[in-house]
Design brief:
Blueprint lengths: L8 E5 L4 H12 L3 E6 L2 H15 L3 E5 L5 H14 L5 E4 L13 H29 L2 E6 L12 H21 L4 E6 L7 H7 L4 H13 L5 H13 L4 E2 L4 H11 L1 H19 L1
Parallel strand pairs: 1-2, 1-4, 2-3, 4-5, 5-6, 6-7
Helix pairs in contact: 1-8, 4-5, 6-7, 7-10, 9-10
């Protein structure tokens, strides 16, 4: 087990809705002081006011872009002013866009900025101070797509692989120097991201969403948040809320050609179901 989470100062990005909101609530429930950050100004205000009613004055909120270095600095400054130095950063904000080879350069750029560079910029700001202070915690909310693949969306698949790769690099480079790194890789979560994709007029987007919902249980944000923070509390690197991902990953490593053939069958079956 790691140091007690209670009393820690945490920032959660993408915290207005879904998993980010659930992560903020989970951390508050464990005694943390939390800054919620999200580009949805109205949404993050509602989220903050809701959690303040539940947990009192241990929550603040700020509107900003998780991939923008200046906005990351603003969220850290708010946390320091309200509560003290940041102990824990949860890089949760993400985008699910860009389907097939027709994914635009803009969609590739946005996916890279939000799903990867947001983590890099936050770590660049926080890790040096954690090394000086003797510790800190960085949490990357990635995806099973970063260990396996994401049918339909090359942008999501590639950037989530990069998210996992960066988290691994952080852990290898700083994990024995006091910086605990946790990488969370769930499959389907019952959030607006999946719901919107499932209802899209874009067939490829619907198919991509269906590959997620057909692959296994679609978990609640609250359950994924609980397992994620349990992993943080244990100083665990890889958290797999859907345990079957470990088996899928092992099959991929053992015989990747066979695994690719299986994924092709899964793609064909999903496409037929969507049609």
């Amino acid at each position: 087990m790691g140091p007690e989470l209670s009393g820690s100062v945490a920032i959660v990005t993408g915290a207005a809705h879904g998993l980010g909101f659930a992560l903020g609530r989970e951390l508050l429930g464990r005694g943390c002081r939390v800054v919620l950050a999200d580009r949805d100004e109205g949404g993050v205000q509602v989220a903050g006011e809701t959690l303040r009613l539940e947990h009192g004055d241990r929550v603040r909120w700020i509107a900003g872009d998780a991939s923008d270095a200046h906005d990351i600095e603003r969220s850290v400054a708010l946390a320091e002013e309200a509560f003290g130095p940041v102990d824990l950063y949860v890089a949760n904000a993400g985008v699910f866009q860009g389907f097939g080879l027709d994914a635009s350069d803009e969609q590739w750029t946005t996916s890279w900025e939000v799903n990867v560079q947001a983590h890099v910029r936050a770590a660049r700001l926080l890790v040096p101070s954690w090394l000086q202070r003797g510790g800190g915690r960085f949490v990357s909310i990635a995806s099973a797509a970063g260990l396996l693949t994401q049918l339909g969306s090359p942008t999501y698949s590639v950037t989530k692989h990069a998210t996992v790769g960066f988290a691994e690099w952080l852990a290898v480079t700083y994990g024995d120097l006091g910086v605990s790194v946790t990488c969370v890789c769930p499959m389907g979560i019952a959030t607006a991201m999946i719901g919107d994709a499932s209802e899209s007029a874009d067939r490829e987007m619907r198919s991509a969403a269906a590959t997620i919902t057909r692959a296994g249980e679609v978990m609640t944000p609250e359950e994924v948040a609980r397992q994620a923070i349990d992993g943080v509390d244990r100083n665990q690197f890889l958290v797999l809320p859907h345990p079957e991902v470990a088996d899928f990953r092992a099959r991929k490593a053992a015989d990747i050609d066979r695994w690719i053939s299986g994924m092709q069958r899964h793609r064909r079956a999903t496409d037929a179901a969507v049609d």
